[in-house]
Amino acid sequence: ELHLLCVKTTEVSVEDAIKSYLFNTQIITLANGEMAIIAPTNCQENPRVHKYLSNIAAQHTPIKHVHYYDVKESMRNGGGPACLRLRVAMTAEEHQALNQHTLMNDAQFERLNTWVDNHYRDTLNVADLADPQLLIESRTALDELTQLLKLGSVYPFQQD
């Protein structure tokens, strides 16, 4: 069943939505079948956005909970909030047809963490941008990531 949610500017201004990262929330399905919105604490700290999210949980939708997480440190470190997420329900057959190497599980989480540890520099200075080694490192990292995810050769440098 499709449930559409509308954020009216009379409830949440565009400015409040942007400042709170309202549209960077994520909807997840809980083990009991209900849904929850995962939102940054910025949403909780903004009175209008907090009220809007609280009202969603009281409506006749599967969304019954709102959970807030502090992601300010991640944002300050350059991670930024993730872009707007799209929730797509799939049948078991559709799920099975996906590239299984792109799905997150404990083993894949460990592989991706190792990849990050191996390829992310601790610091990047302006002078590094002129260093040809940075290009080599970046291409090596991307090549290994596409292999890890079994994506094939997707970048032009991989097809040379």
Structure, described:
- The structure is a single chain.
- This protein is α+β, with helices and mostly antiparallel strands and 160 residues long.
- The chain folds into two domains: 14-89, no CATH class; 100-159, no CATH class.
- Helices cover 41% and strands 11% of the residues.
- The protein has a three-stranded mixed β-sheet with strand order 1-2-3.
- Strand 1 and strand 2 form a beta hairpin.
- Helix 6 (106-119) packs antiparallel against helix 7.
- The chain is extended and about 55 Å long.
- The chain starts with 13 loop residues before the first helix and ends in a 12-residue tail after the last helix.
What is this entry, summarized?
By secondary structure, this protein is α+β, with helices and mostly antiparallel strands.
Please supply descriptive tags for the structure shown above:
7 helices, extended, alpha+beta
**Strand sequence of the main sheet, in spatial order?**
1-2-3
β-strand amount: 5-15%
| DSSP strand tally | 3
Radius of gyration: 20 Å
Average pLDDT? 87
Order of helices and strands: HEEHHEHHHH
Taking the alpha carbons of the first and last residues, their distance comes to 47 Å
SSE order and pairing:
Elements lengths: L13 H7 L5 E4 L5 E6 H5 L1 H12 L4 E7 L2 H5 L15 H6 L8 H14 L12 H17 L12
Parallel strand pairs: 2-3
Antiparallel strand pairs: 1-2
Helix pairs in contact: 6-7
